UniProtKB/TrEMBL annotation:
It comes from the Eukaryota. This is F-box domain-containing protein. The lineage of its organism: Eukaryota, Metazoa, Ecdysozoa, Nematoda, Chromadorea. Keywords: Signal. PROSITE patterns: FBOX. Residues 4-50 form the F-box domain. The keyword Signal applies. InterPro entries: F-box_dom, F-box_Sdz-33, Zygotic_Embryogenesis-Asso. It holds the Pfam family FBA_2.
Protein backbone atom coordinates (compact mmCIF):
# COMPACT_ATOMS: atom_id res chain seq x y z
CA UNK A 1 0.00 0.00 0.00
CA UNK A 2 1.44 3.38 -1.05
CA UNK A 3 2.03 5.98 1.62
CA UNK A 4 1.28 9.62 0.88
CA UNK A 5 4.38 11.76 0.78
CA UNK A 6 4.25 14.41 3.56
CA UNK A 7 5.16 17.27 1.24
CA UNK A 8 4.12 20.07 3.57
CA UNK A 9 6.37 18.76 6.36
CA UNK A 10 9.41 19.69 4.28
CA UNK A 11 11.20 23.04 4.73
CA UNK A 12 10.15 25.83 2.39
CA UNK A 13 13.10 25.64 -0.03
CA UNK A 14 12.64 21.91 -0.88
CA UNK A 15 8.90 22.50 -1.36
CA UNK A 16 9.64 25.34 -3.75
CA UNK A 17 12.03 23.15 -5.73
CA UNK A 18 9.33 20.50 -6.09
CA UNK A 19 6.73 23.10 -7.13
CA UNK A 20 9.08 24.43 -9.82
CA UNK A 21 8.84 21.06 -11.55
CA UNK A 22 5.04 21.39 -11.81
CA UNK A 23 3.19 23.00 -14.70
CA UNK A 24 1.16 26.14 -14.09
CA UNK A 25 -2.15 24.30 -13.56
CA UNK A 26 -0.60 21.96 -10.98
CA UNK A 27 0.85 24.91 -9.09
CA UNK A 28 -2.48 26.70 -9.27
CA UNK A 29 -4.35 23.62 -7.97
CA UNK A 30 -1.77 23.26 -5.19
CA UNK A 31 -2.32 26.90 -4.21
CA UNK A 32 -6.04 26.28 -3.64
CA UNK A 33 -5.54 23.61 -0.97
CA UNK A 34 -5.05 25.97 1.96
CA UNK A 35 -3.82 29.41 2.97
CA UNK A 36 -0.36 27.93 3.52
CA UNK A 37 -0.13 26.36 0.07
CA UNK A 38 -1.33 29.64 -1.41
CA UNK A 39 1.49 31.47 0.38
CA UNK A 40 4.02 28.86 -0.79
CA UNK A 41 2.84 29.21 -4.41
CA UNK A 42 3.17 32.99 -4.15
CA UNK A 43 6.87 32.51 -3.28
CA UNK A 44 7.34 31.08 -6.79
CA UNK A 45 6.69 34.61 -8.11
CA UNK A 46 4.60 33.45 -11.08
CA UNK A 47 3.79 37.08 -11.91
CA UNK A 48 1.21 37.35 -14.69
CA UNK A 49 -0.69 40.24 -16.28
CA UNK A 50 -4.40 39.60 -15.75
CA UNK A 51 -7.45 40.91 -17.59
CA UNK A 52 -10.93 40.28 -16.19
CA UNK A 53 -14.17 39.83 -18.13
CA UNK A 54 -17.34 39.96 -16.04
CA UNK A 55 -19.92 37.74 -17.75
CA UNK A 56 -23.53 36.94 -16.91
CA UNK A 57 -22.77 34.11 -14.48
CA UNK A 58 -18.99 33.94 -14.15
CA UNK A 59 -15.81 35.96 -13.95
CA UNK A 60 -13.24 35.16 -16.62
CA UNK A 61 -9.53 35.67 -15.90
CA UNK A 62 -7.38 36.03 -19.02
CA UNK A 63 -3.61 36.18 -19.22
CA UNK A 64 -2.47 38.27 -22.23
CA UNK A 65 1.12 37.09 -21.93
CA UNK A 66 0.08 33.45 -21.53
CA UNK A 67 -2.88 32.85 -23.84
CA UNK A 68 -2.94 29.09 -23.21
CA UNK A 69 -4.51 29.56 -19.79
CA UNK A 70 -8.05 30.74 -18.96
CA UNK A 71 -9.71 30.68 -15.53
CA UNK A 72 -13.48 30.91 -14.95
CA UNK A 73 -14.87 31.62 -11.48
CA UNK A 74 -18.59 30.89 -11.29
CA UNK A 75 -21.02 33.23 -9.53
CA UNK A 76 -24.21 31.16 -9.16
CA UNK A 77 -23.76 30.83 -5.41
CA UNK A 78 -21.23 31.59 -2.75
CA UNK A 79 -19.73 28.09 -3.04
CA UNK A 80 -16.63 28.37 -5.19
CA UNK A 81 -16.51 26.56 -8.51
CA UNK A 82 -13.69 26.95 -10.96
CA UNK A 83 -12.88 25.87 -14.50
CA UNK A 84 -9.33 26.14 -15.76
CA UNK A 85 -8.31 25.79 -19.39
CA UNK A 86 -4.69 25.05 -20.28
CA UNK A 87 -3.73 24.39 -23.89
CA UNK A 88 -7.32 23.42 -24.84
CA UNK A 89 -7.62 21.06 -21.86
CA UNK A 90 -10.23 21.92 -19.21
CA UNK A 91 -9.97 21.04 -15.53
CA UNK A 92 -12.76 21.65 -13.02
CA UNK A 93 -12.97 21.86 -9.27
CA UNK A 94 -16.43 22.03 -7.69
CA UNK A 95 -17.70 22.65 -4.17
CA UNK A 96 -14.45 24.14 -2.93
CA UNK A 97 -14.68 24.98 0.80
CA UNK A 98 -14.20 28.73 0.22
CA UNK A 99 -16.32 31.52 -1.22
CA UNK A 100 -15.91 32.76 -4.79
CA UNK A 101 -14.43 36.10 -3.72
CA UNK A 102 -11.87 34.32 -1.48
CA UNK A 103 -11.02 32.07 -4.40
CA UNK A 104 -10.47 35.15 -6.57
CA UNK A 105 -8.28 36.64 -3.85
CA UNK A 106 -6.14 33.50 -3.76
CA UNK A 107 -5.90 33.46 -7.55
CA UNK A 108 -4.68 37.06 -7.69
CA UNK A 109 -2.32 36.31 -4.82
CA UNK A 110 -0.66 33.29 -6.43
CA UNK A 111 -0.09 35.20 -9.67
CA UNK A 112 1.28 38.23 -7.78
CA UNK A 113 -1.34 40.48 -9.38
CA UNK A 114 -1.26 43.91 -7.73
CA UNK A 115 -2.78 45.72 -10.73
CA UNK A 116 -5.38 44.44 -13.20
CA UNK A 117 -4.68 45.68 -16.72
CA UNK A 118 -8.24 45.65 -18.06
CA UNK A 119 -11.70 44.83 -16.74
CA UNK A 120 -14.58 44.44 -19.20
CA UNK A 121 -18.05 44.61 -17.67
CA UNK A 122 -21.07 42.96 -19.26
CA UNK A 123 -24.34 42.35 -17.39
CA UNK A 124 -23.81 40.09 -14.35
CA UNK A 125 -26.85 38.25 -13.05
CA UNK A 126 -25.46 38.10 -9.51
CA UNK A 127 -24.31 40.57 -6.89
CA UNK A 128 -20.76 41.68 -7.72
CA UNK A 129 -20.06 43.53 -4.46
CA UNK A 130 -17.93 40.81 -2.77
CA UNK A 131 -15.92 40.34 -5.97
CA UNK A 132 -15.30 44.07 -6.42
CA UNK A 133 -14.19 44.42 -2.80
CA UNK A 134 -11.53 41.76 -3.49
CA UNK A 135 -10.08 43.38 -6.60
CA UNK A 136 -6.89 45.46 -6.53
CA UNK A 137 -6.57 48.65 -8.54
CA UNK A 138 -7.47 48.41 -12.22
CA UNK A 139 -5.71 50.24 -15.02
CA UNK A 140 -8.77 50.39 -17.32
CA UNK A 141 -12.47 49.56 -16.98
CA UNK A 142 -14.76 49.26 -19.98
CA UNK A 143 -18.39 48.34 -20.58
CA UNK A 144 -20.37 47.52 -23.71
CA UNK A 145 -23.69 47.37 -21.89
CA UNK A 146 -26.22 50.00 -20.85
CA UNK A 147 -24.52 51.29 -17.73
CA UNK A 148 -27.73 52.98 -16.56
CA UNK A 149 -29.31 49.57 -15.85
CA UNK A 150 -29.05 48.88 -12.14
CA UNK A 151 -27.25 45.51 -12.48
CA UNK A 152 -24.41 47.16 -14.40
CA UNK A 153 -24.51 50.64 -12.82
CA UNK A 154 -23.98 49.50 -9.21
CA UNK A 155 -20.80 47.47 -9.86
CA UNK A 156 -19.44 50.08 -12.26
CA UNK A 157 -19.90 52.84 -9.70
CA UNK A 158 -18.25 50.64 -7.05
CA UNK A 159 -15.26 50.25 -9.38
CA UNK A 160 -14.66 54.02 -9.68
CA UNK A 161 -12.31 54.25 -6.64
CA UNK A 162 -10.21 51.41 -8.10
CA UNK A 163 -9.58 52.87 -11.57
CA UNK A 164 -8.69 56.13 -13.29
CA UNK A 165 -9.64 55.21 -16.88
CA UNK A 166 -13.11 54.22 -18.13
CA UNK A 167 -14.28 53.34 -21.65
CA UNK A 168 -18.01 53.09 -22.38
CA UNK A 169 -19.30 51.61 -25.63
CA UNK A 170 -23.14 51.71 -25.54
CA UNK A 171 -25.06 49.94 -28.30
CA UNK A 172 -28.13 52.14 -27.85
CA UNK A 173 -29.10 55.41 -26.20
CA UNK A 174 -28.92 55.16 -22.41
CA UNK A 175 -32.29 54.51 -20.78
CA UNK A 176 -31.57 56.67 -17.72
CA UNK A 177 -29.04 59.34 -18.74
CA UNK A 178 -29.00 60.83 -15.23
CA UNK A 179 -27.11 57.75 -14.01
CA UNK A 180 -24.39 58.48 -16.53
CA UNK A 181 -23.86 61.82 -14.78
CA UNK A 182 -22.91 59.96 -11.61
CA UNK A 183 -20.06 58.42 -13.59
CA UNK A 184 -19.10 61.71 -15.27
CA UNK A 185 -18.57 63.46 -11.92
CA UNK A 186 -15.96 60.88 -10.85
CA UNK A 187 -12.38 62.09 -10.39
CA UNK A 188 -11.07 60.07 -13.32
CA UNK A 189 -7.98 60.71 -15.38
CA UNK A 190 -9.74 59.66 -18.58
CA UNK A 191 -13.23 58.81 -19.80
CA UNK A 192 -14.23 57.92 -23.35
CA UNK A 193 -17.70 57.19 -24.68
CA UNK A 194 -17.93 55.67 -28.16
CA UNK A 195 -21.39 54.33 -29.05
CA UNK A 196 -21.95 51.52 -31.56
CA UNK A 197 -24.35 52.49 -34.39
CA UNK A 198 -26.17 55.11 -32.34
CA UNK A 199 -25.95 58.73 -31.26
CA UNK A 200 -25.19 59.79 -27.75
CA UNK A 201 -27.16 62.68 -26.24
CA UNK A 202 -24.91 65.20 -24.54
CA UNK A 203 -26.00 68.58 -23.26
CA UNK A 204 -24.38 71.49 -21.47
CA UNK A 205 -25.06 70.08 -18.00
CA UNK A 206 -23.23 66.86 -18.92
CA UNK A 207 -20.16 68.81 -20.01
CA UNK A 208 -20.21 71.05 -16.94
CA UNK A 209 -20.23 68.16 -14.45
CA UNK A 210 -17.62 66.05 -16.26
CA UNK A 211 -14.74 65.94 -13.80
CA UNK A 212 -12.21 63.85 -15.74
CA UNK A 213 -8.82 65.24 -16.66
CA UNK A 214 -9.46 64.11 -20.24
CA UNK A 215 -12.84 63.34 -21.81
CA UNK A 216 -13.53 62.03 -25.32
CA UNK A 217 -17.07 61.77 -26.71
CA UNK A 218 -17.91 60.14 -30.06
CA UNK A 219 -21.15 60.38 -32.07
CA UNK A 220 -22.61 63.09 -29.87
CA UNK A 221 -25.84 65.00 -30.34
CA UNK A 222 -24.49 68.35 -29.17
CA UNK A 223 -25.68 71.82 -30.11
CA UNK A 224 -23.40 74.65 -31.23
CA UNK A 225 -24.94 76.92 -28.62
CA UNK A 226 -24.05 74.43 -25.84
CA UNK A 227 -20.39 74.42 -26.78
CA UNK A 228 -20.39 78.22 -27.13
CA UNK A 229 -22.06 78.62 -23.73
CA UNK A 230 -19.55 76.26 -22.11
CA UNK A 231 -16.61 78.30 -23.44
CA UNK A 232 -18.22 81.56 -22.30
CA UNK A 233 -18.79 80.20 -18.79
CA UNK A 234 -15.15 79.14 -18.66
CA UNK A 235 -13.90 82.53 -19.94
CA UNK A 236 -16.03 84.45 -17.43
CA UNK A 237 -14.62 82.35 -14.59
CA UNK A 238 -18.02 80.85 -13.78
CA UNK A 239 -16.61 77.33 -13.91
CA UNK A 240 -13.28 76.00 -12.71
CA UNK A 241 -12.62 72.57 -14.11
CA UNK A 242 -9.84 70.04 -13.49
CA UNK A 243 -10.26 69.08 -17.15
CA UNK A 244 -7.21 69.45 -19.38
CA UNK A 245 -8.50 68.08 -22.68
CA UNK A 246 -12.06 67.81 -24.01
CA UNK A 247 -12.69 66.13 -27.36
CA UNK A 248 -15.83 65.65 -29.46
CA UNK A 249 -16.04 63.53 -32.61
CA UNK A 250 -19.18 63.85 -34.73
CA UNK A 251 -20.38 63.63 -38.30
CA UNK A 252 -22.27 66.91 -37.86
CA UNK A 253 -20.42 69.96 -39.13
CA UNK A 254 -20.75 72.74 -36.56
CA UNK A 255 -20.57 76.32 -37.74
CA UNK A 256 -17.30 77.42 -36.14
CA UNK A 257 -18.40 81.06 -36.14
CA UNK A 258 -21.39 80.14 -33.96
CA UNK A 259 -19.20 78.07 -31.65
CA UNK A 260 -16.69 80.90 -31.22
CA UNK A 261 -19.16 83.80 -31.30
CA UNK A 262 -18.53 86.50 -28.68
CA UNK A 263 -15.33 84.90 -27.32
CA UNK A 264 -12.74 87.31 -28.80
CA UNK A 265 -10.64 84.44 -30.11
CA UNK A 266 -7.17 84.80 -31.57
CA UNK A 267 -6.70 82.41 -34.48
CA UNK A 268 -3.25 80.83 -34.70
CA UNK A 269 -1.90 79.76 -38.12
CA UNK A 270 -1.51 76.01 -38.73
CA UNK A 271 2.22 76.53 -38.98
CA UNK A 272 2.27 77.44 -35.27
CA UNK A 273 2.81 74.24 -33.28
CA UNK A 274 2.71 73.84 -29.51
CA UNK A 275 3.21 70.80 -27.30
CA UNK A 276 0.40 70.13 -24.84
CA UNK A 277 1.54 67.96 -21.93
CA UNK A 278 -0.91 66.26 -19.60
CA UNK A 279 -0.30 66.46 -15.87
CA UNK A 280 -1.19 62.78 -15.44
CA UNK A 281 0.32 59.67 -17.00
CA UNK A 282 -2.37 58.95 -19.56
CA UNK A 283 -2.40 56.98 -22.80
CA UNK A 284 -1.25 59.89 -24.93
CA UNK A 285 0.92 61.83 -22.54
CA UNK A 286 1.42 64.74 -24.93
CA UNK A 287 -0.26 66.17 -28.03
CA UNK A 288 1.06 68.49 -30.72
CA UNK A 289 -1.40 71.34 -31.31
CA UNK A 290 -1.15 72.96 -34.74
CA UNK A 291 -2.80 76.36 -34.93
CA UNK A 292 -6.17 76.61 -33.19
CA UNK A 293 -8.26 79.40 -31.73
CA UNK A 294 -7.00 80.85 -28.44
CA UNK A 295 -9.34 82.19 -25.77
CA UNK A 296 -7.90 83.89 -22.69
CA UNK A 297 -9.39 84.70 -19.31
CA UNK A 298 -8.73 87.99 -17.52
CA UNK A 299 -6.45 86.12 -15.09
CA UNK A 300 -4.32 84.90 -18.00
CA UNK A 301 -5.59 81.29 -18.23
CA UNK A 302 -5.62 80.04 -21.80
CA UNK A 303 -7.80 77.58 -23.70
CA UNK A 304 -7.29 76.55 -27.32
CA UNK A 305 -10.13 75.28 -29.53
CA UNK A 306 -8.79 73.16 -32.40
CA UNK A 307 -11.36 72.29 -35.08
CA UNK A 308 -10.33 69.56 -37.51
CA UNK A 309 -12.79 69.04 -40.37
CA UNK A 310 -12.37 65.74 -42.20
CA UNK A 311 -14.65 64.17 -44.84
CA UNK A 312 -17.79 63.00 -43.01
CA UNK A 313 -16.02 63.44 -39.66
CA UNK A 314 -15.47 66.54 -37.54
CA UNK A 315 -13.18 66.64 -34.52
CA UNK A 316 -13.28 69.37 -31.88
CA UNK A 317 -10.39 69.49 -29.40
CA UNK A 318 -10.36 71.89 -26.47
CA UNK A 319 -7.08 72.22 -24.60
CA UNK A 320 -6.92 73.87 -21.16
CA UNK A 321 -3.36 75.11 -20.73
CA UNK A 322 -1.95 75.14 -17.21
Amino acid sequence: MATAFPLLRLPLLPILQICKSMDIIEVFAFSLLSKRTNTIAKHLKMTRTININVKENHVELCFPNCRDILINLHLENDQAQINVKLQDRWSSWNNLPISTNKLLNRTLNVFNCELIDDLVMEIPRYDMSPIIATLPNIKEVSSRADITREMIFRPLKALLPKTSIIYLFPRAEYVYPEKLQEILIGNLDFIEIGPFDCYFRLDLDDILITNSTKAVFHCVNLKERDLNRFLKLWKNGTINTRMEHLKFVTDEDFNRDKVLNGLNVIEQPRTTTRTFEFSRNQIDYRNIVSGGHDIRRVNGDLVTVDIDDKPALHIYNIYFWS
